Amino acid sequence: MARRPKQEITWTPQDRQRIAMECNASILFYGGSAGGGKSDFLLMDYLGGIKHGSKYSGIIFRKTYKQLEQLIKRSKELYGSIGATYTKGELLWTFTTGSTLKFRHLESDDDVEEYQGHEYQYIAFDELTHWGSQYVFDYMLSRSRSAHGVPCYLRAAGNPGGRGHSWVKAMFIDGKEPEHIYTERIEVTPTPANPGGMVDRTIVFIPARLTDNHILMVADPFYEANLKKLPHHLMRALLHGDWDVFTGQVFDEFSRETHVIDPIALRPEWRKFCSMDWGYAKPFSIGWWAVTTEGRMIRYREWYGCAPEKINTGIRMNVKDVAERAFTLSVAEGCREMVADPACWITQGIAEDDTNQITIASYFANAGFNMTKAVNNRINGKMKFHEYLKTKLFDGKPGMLIFKTCLAFIRTIPILTVDPNNPEDIDTKLEDHVYDDARYACMSELASRVIHVPDEWEVHTHYETDKYSALRFGLN
């Protein structure tokens, strides 16, 4: 992933900074916890392109002018030793090769239009989550270009939290493995050089935590201790770089580190069942659960009927096809039970092209499921959901665990917030379909029913072949 040789300077990147600086992805987001060396990374990463001389220009943004002060101060400490010239009135560095770097602020979406017609080969945002809208990021991405064929890069750094938490998380964190470069094909106007009209754009997230910044840990040994004194949600965000926590969320006990595990082999004596929240114009959500002999719920599969690249939009799939496919996924593993929203027993609104007017539940029953109406007490269901997330079983692990392949659960559960009109419930205007299916599961007798283990099944607490990652569960 080596990219560009750096001009010699009296600064040495730390391990995580080096990984980011050697990455050739078009778009890179660096950071996570506070104290990860983000500003230094942006300032030093820019230098990789100054060999292109006057054909290479960069710009680094902060949200406000006041926030630029510390960044400019640090740039003087780093750039002063290589003969670069700083013009205070223009907030501009000019390097001996002719390359330039500007510092600018963008307080509102409208401010970004000042850069219409501009061209930059290096664009960076420091503390990206301070921007509540994705608009400034997308607009400046359109300014990332070169008439001379110089490679162009967009870099950003930041912490969890802030007004832009959700869109930054959706772009760089959700459903993506850290340090894995993802490629998307972008359609562009065909040219003689690119008659296909398609180009590749790559994107990556490089995480960094305070513990990666050995220099700061030595220089300020109290920094970590001070972060630990913050309110719990801020401590998780700023110390651990946890993107699943923010002010106002309902299920702040949910943690990927604690609740999300690698897929494992399911024991034959564990009960399996499905839970469903139906949707047509809105997404449907079906979750598959295994209930262990100790009463732990494991979500091992899900099918979320959400349109690709569209939030909270259903795929409008025929209910008969959904039912048959869901049963096909279930039957081989002995899963025939389904608990579903009581509205599925109403003979209306199945689909726009449905004239039979039988119930949604009937379609699933005809496919082979034993259907059970969910207990739809929203307040009790919320408390039960909390209970499963918080309760520790004999091994110290929570009563609910989620396979890391259940991306919709991992993405949507942390973003649920309180209903402004009913503090005892969640805001139903949000993307709550996975939560509803999981809530039905938690309230179901299927989740709490005691399983009889036949005598011929010898139950062990130790297996040589099964592996957990976040979960030990007595297995190696």
Quote the CATH topology of the largest domain. Answer: Rossmann fold
Distance from N terminus to C terminus (CA atoms, Å) equals: 34 Å
Poorly predicted spans: 1-7, 450-476
Q: How many domain regions?
A: 2
Annotation field: number of helices? 15
Strand order of the largest sheet: 3-4-5-2-6-7-1-9-8
CATH homologous superfamily of the largest domain?
Answer: P-loop containing nucleotide triphosphate hydrolases
Q: What fraction, in percent, of the residue positions are helical?
A: 25-40%
In total, how many beta strands?
18
Mean pLDDT: 83
- What's the gyration radius in Å? 26 Å
* CATH class category of the largest domain: Alpha Beta
Structural class: alpha/beta
The biggest beta sheet reads: 9 strands, mixed
Instruction: Bin the strand percentage.
Output: 15-25%
Question: What's the architecture of the largest domain, going by CATH?
Answer: 3-Layer(aba) Sandwich
Principal-axis shape equals elongated
